[in-house]
UniProtKB/TrEMBL annotation:
Record-stated family: Belongs to the NDK family.
InterPro entries: NDK-like_dom (IPR034907), NDK-like_dom_sf (IPR036850)
Name the record gives this protein: Nucleoside diphosphate kinase-like domain-containing protein
Organism listed in the record: marine sediment metagenome
Alphabetical keyword list: ATP-binding, Kinase, Nucleotide-binding, Transferase
């Protein structure tokens, strides 16, 4: 997650009247990343998309 963006994203979710039930930082493994973006499998950007999400931590939220 790009530095400083987490707080802004959380604020926008809450301003929209939604509640964040759970939130944690994690690194995805390749299998999970490919499953997450499986709707894009076969498209020319699929590999770059997966590599990008694998490049660092993500923030997972249950909203």
């Amino acid at each position: 997650m790009a530095k400083g963006l987490t707080d802004e994203i959380v604020a926008r979710i809450e301003r929209a009247g939604l509640k964040i039930v759970s939130m944690r930082r994690m690194r995805l493994d390749r299998g999970l990343a490919e499953e997450l973006y499986s709707v894009h499998r076969g498209k020319d950007f699929f590999g770059r998309l997966v590599e990008h999400v694998l490049s660092g931590e993500v923030v997972v939220m249950l909203v």
